[in-house]
Specification:
heterotrimer; A alpha/beta; B alpha+beta; C alpha/beta; A: alpha/beta; Transcription Regulator spoIIAA; 5 strands; globular; B: alpha+beta; Heat Shock Protein 90
Chain lengths: 132, 133, 284
C-alpha cells in the first residue's frame, strides 16, 4: 500500500494530501506523522489539502486527531489550501476542526507556524534566560 | 450510459470511495454546480460511512430523476443493521468532533434538498437523499 | 376504444383541414409560423390526441404514459412559441380551437343518439380544456426559467470584489440580499480570496437596506467558510437600524469583527496583515 509522503522543511513537516484516502491510508498517515514528529522533534505540521475536492467528517476527524497528537508532542498544526466549495460544504455540514489553525496556502501556513513557534519558544524559555 | 437506477454495495472503505466517484460523475452529468456537487458527494460519503460503520454494511441505490422538467439525483442507503433507537436524537445537531452519536445525519440533511429517514431497531435503516439541479 | 379516438382515426384529414381553415388569424399568426410547420404540428397533435384518448377509462388522466407523446408535443410547441413571440393565450386558444372540428365530426357520427353525443362532447371538451391549460403551465415555467437565468447573470455581474491592498479584499454589497444572491456573493468572494491570496476580506453592507435572519445567517456562514480557508472577514457598514434588527432577531454575529465604517475596517485589515498607515512626518 502506498503511503502519503511526509516532507521535512526546517523544523516543520509538510504533508500534501492528493488522493481520495481510504481508511487504511488515513490511519497510516496518522501513524507516520506521529512517528516523524517524534523522530525529528518537529515544531509544526502543515497539512496541504488544496488537492482535496471532498472533506467529510472522517477526514475532519483525522485532521483533528493529527492536531491533537501533534500538540501532545509540542507541535502546532496548520491546514492550508481548503477549496471554497469544500469550505462552504463543511460550514453547512456543521463540521468544525477545533485546535486546527488554517491558512490560505503553504507559504502563509509556514509563516503562521514560524510566528507561533517563535512565540512558544519565548514562552518556554525560563525567565532568567530571556534576552530583555 | 449507466443503468438507471443503479445499485452498489456499501461494505468497505473502498466502496465509499467508489460511491463518491460515482456521485461525482452523475451530478456532473446532470450539470450540478460545483458547490452542489460537493454537497451531494459529501452527504453521500457521510451516509455511506454510517452504513459501513453502524449498519454492518448495505447497499445504495442511484436514481436519476426527471420530474416536471426538473432533473435530480436520489440516493437510497439501506442496511439491515441494528437500527437507530432514537431518531430525533440522531437528527439533532451537535455531533461534531465528540458530542452526539457521530452519525452525521443532521449535517447530511442540510446538504440536500430532500431527506427521508426510516429506521427500526433490530431491522435496519433506510436513508433517502435527493438533490435537484 | 373511446368515441373520440375512433372518429379522429376515421376522419383525421377532414378534422385537420377544417381546424386549420377555421382557426382565427390571431391564433394562427401567419407572421410567426409558416404553413408547413403549422400544419405538421396540427397533424401531430391529432395523432397524439387519438393515441392518448384511445382507452376511455384512462383518457381523462393526463399523467398516464398514453399521454406522454401529447405532453412532449405540447411542451415543444409551447416552448418554441414562447421564443417566437406568441402569447400564452394564443397557444392555449390554439388547443381550444380543435373543439369545433371535433364536435362537428362527433355530431355527424353520433347524430342519432343525442344522449351519447352529449356525453362524448362533454368529455371531449373537458379533455381539450385540460390540454389547453397544460400549455399555459409550460409557458409559465419557461418564462420563469428565463427570468431565473437572467437574474443569475445579473447577480454574477453585480458582485464586484475589489482589491483594496495587497492581501485585502473589499466586497461592497448594494441592494437587497435574498438567499440566492447571498449564495452567489459567498461563492464569488471565497473564489476571489483563493485567487488573490488575500487573508482579509471586508464585507461592506452600507448599501443594504434590510438584513433579515436568513441574510444574517448567510453572512455568518460566509465568514465561517472564509475562516476555514484561512482568511478573516470584517463586516462593515452596519447601520443603526440593521444593528437593531440583528439584536432584535437574536442572531449572534459571534466573534465576527464588525465596524461601522469601511475606513475603520480597512485600518483593522491593514494591522492584521502587518501593515499600518504612517504620516509622512513620522516616516522621515
Amino acid at each position: 500500500m502506498e503511503r502519503i509522503p511526509i516532507l521535512k522543511m526546517g523544523e516543520f513537516l509538510l504533508v500534501s494530501i492528493q488522493v481520495d484516502m481510504h481508511d487504511r491510508l488515513a490511519l497510516a498517515l496518522q501513524e507516520d506523522l506521529t512517528n516523524r514528529i517524534s523522530e525529528t522533534s518537529a515544531r509544526g505540521v502543515l497539512i496541504d489539502i488544496s488537492s482535496l475536492e471532498i472533506v467529510d467528517s472522517f477526514i475532519g476527524r483525522m485532521i483533528s486527531n493529527i492536531a491533537a497528537m501533534a500538540r501532545v508532542m509540542d507541535a502546532e498544526t496548520v491546514v492550508v489550501g481548503m477549496r471554497p466549495a469544500v469550505a462552504i460544504t463543511l460550514v453547512e455540514l456543521g463540521l468544525s476542526m477545533p485546535g486546527v489553525r488554517t491558512a490560505l496556502n503553504v507559504e502563509k501556513g509556514m509563516d503562521l507556524l514560524r510566528t507561533t513557534s517563535a512565540k512558544n519558544r519565548v514562552a518556554r524559555t525560563p525567565i532568567h534566560a530571556r534576552k530583555s | 450510459m449507466p443503468a438507471n437506477p443503479e445499485k452498489m454495495p456499501v461494505r468497505s472503505s473502498g466502496d465509499i470511495l467508489l460511491i463518491r466517484q460515482t456521485v461525482r460523475a452523475r451530478t456532473a452529468e446532470l450539470g450540478f454546480s460545483l458547490v452542489d456537487q460537493t454537497k451531494m458527494i459529501t452527504a453521500a460519503s457521510e451516509l455511506a460511512r454510517n452504513t459501513v460503520d453502524y449498519g454492518g454494511g448495505g447497499t445504495v441505490l442511484f436514481e436519476i430523476l426527471n420530474e416536471n422538467g426538473r432533473r435530480g439525483l436520489r440516493l437510497t442507503f439501506e442496511d439491515k443493521g441494528p437500527g437507530i433507537p432514537d431518531i430525533s436524537l440522531a437528527l439533532k445537531d451537535g455531533w461534531t468532533s465528540g458530542g452526539g452519536l457521530g452519525l452525521g445525519l443532521s449535517g447530511a440533511k442540510r446538504l440536500v434538498n430532500d431527506f427521508q429517514l426510516e429506521s427500526k431497531v433490530g431491522e435496519g435503516t433506510k436513508v433517502v437523499i435527493t438533490r435537484w439541479k | 376504444m373511446s368515441k373520440m379516438a375512433d372518429v379522429i382515426g376515421k376522419h383525421q384529414s377532414q378534422i385537420l383541414n377544417s381546424w386549420m381553415q377555421e382557426m382565427p388569424a390571431s391564433t394562427r399568426r401567419t407572421d410567426l409560423i409558416g404553413e408547413t410547420e403549422f400544419r405538421n404540428q396540427c397533424a401531430h397533435f391529432l395523432v397524439a390526441l387519438q393515441d392518448g384518448s384511445r382507452d376511455s377509462e384512462t383518457a381523462g388522466d393526463l399523467s398516464r404514459p398514453e399521454w406522454q407523446q401529447m405532453r412532449d408535443l405540447l411542451g415543444e410547441i409551447s416552448q418554441s412559441r414562447v421564443q417566437l413571440g406568441f402569447s400564452p393565450t394564443q397557444v392555449a386558444t390554439f388547443v381550444f380551437s380543435v373543439k369545433s372540428p371535433i364536435f362537428n365530426v362527433l355530431r355527424e357520427s353520433l347524430g342519432n343518439d343525442p344522449k351519447v353525443l352529449a356525453d362524448e362532447i362533454y368529455r371531449a371538451s373537458l379533455l381539450i380544456d385540460e390540454l389547453g391549460l397544460y400549455t399555459t403551465e409550460i409557458f409559465q415555467r419557461s418564462r420563469e426559467e428565463v427570468i431565473r437565468l437572467q437574474q443569475q447573470e445579473m447577480l454574477e455581474l453585480s458582485t464586484p470584489v475589489v482589491k483594496l491592498w495587497e492581501g485585502i479584499l473589499a466586497l461592497p454589497l448594494i441592494g437587497t440580499l435574498d438567499s440566492a444572491r447571498t449564495q452567489i456573493v459567498m461563492e464569488t468572494l471565497l473564489q476571489k480570496i483563493v485567487e488573490t491570496g488575500s487573508s482579509v476580506a471586508i464585507i461592506d453592507i452600507t448599501g443594504v437596506p434590510t438584513v433579515d435572519t436568513l441574510v444574517a445567517q448567510h453572512l455568518i456562514k460566509t465568514v465561517t467558510a472564509a475562516r476555514l480557508m484561512g482568511a478573516d472577514c470584517i463586516i462593515s457598514g452596519i447601520r443603526p437600524q440593521i444593528a437593531q434588527t440583528i439584536v432584535h432577531l437574536g442572531v449572534g454575529l459571534g466573534d465576527v469583527t464588525t465596524k461601522a465604517g469601511l475606513a475603520d475596517a480597512f485600518l483593522i485589515a491593514l494591522s492584521r496583515t502587518g501593515l499600518a498607515i504612517v504620516s509622512k512626518a513620522e516616516a522621515v
